[in-house]
Amino acid sequence: MKPVCGLKLSLVLWLGWVLLPAGAHGQSDDLVARGRYVFALAGGCACHTVPEGTPHIGARAFPLPFGKVYSTNITQDKDTGLGAWSDQQIRDAMVRGIRRDGARILPVMPYEQYSGMAQDDLKALIAYLRTLKPVEKRTPALESWMPFARSAGVWLYLKIFGRFSSAQAQAPRAGVERGRYLVDHVSLCGDCHTPRNWLGVPQRSLYLAGASQKIGPLGEAVPNITPDKETGIGEWKREEIADLLISGTKPDLDNVQGLMHEVIRGTPHGYKDMTREDALAIADYLRSIPPIKNKID
Known about the structure:
Oligomer: single chain
Radius of gyration: 21 Å
Number of domains: 2
């Protein structure tokens, strides 16, 4: 009887798929495709991949003032990744900084910025994350000399410094507003290009003005991308900014390296896959912000 029952179950599942309302398959495929594009605009979520390592399994180290934290596995593995998480739990982690067990996520994860991601984009992104092949890889534990202060410390940090946004139902479609949305809530340019103090708090008066190697992310110097003509990209044409975002090539034909190279290349989807229109929207927004003189050596 067992083989017959198994055959019946397979037939029922197959009929259920076939008899879905017309267009349902296409809608699902379209949602995943949109999510893949949002993932690309987010630089392939490169923080969750060790350079040259297996994509999306986390375990990438990020130094903190009180220790070291590791990025998490975002594949669909049920034991070590997101496979057992509901869509709502993934959403809460991404935009509220709350884990599946209710614990607070350290703000190294940029959930404050992602809180402004449009609801449609976030839904599509989660649909795409559901397609990532499960790979078992447990996240290393937080290394800290004050582990018991984690929950209270995150609460206090967010209470004093946190800035969450209200997400729109849909993202702006074009122009400077589209560029601002991508820079601040999807591509997260400020996560690297806005310097932070010793607590990791963004110095908002230096928005996108770059950071020296001493204070830059992972010990890298990050350039000033405000339109200051002496120390930023004020002399760049909008087409040149778009070219760099997609190809990684600067106006002087040199290539970007380090973290910028990673997010352009993607894992494997990254900035290189963004449309020319979106790259130009980002360029137009960067050219519209106040120039800040901040020389980065």
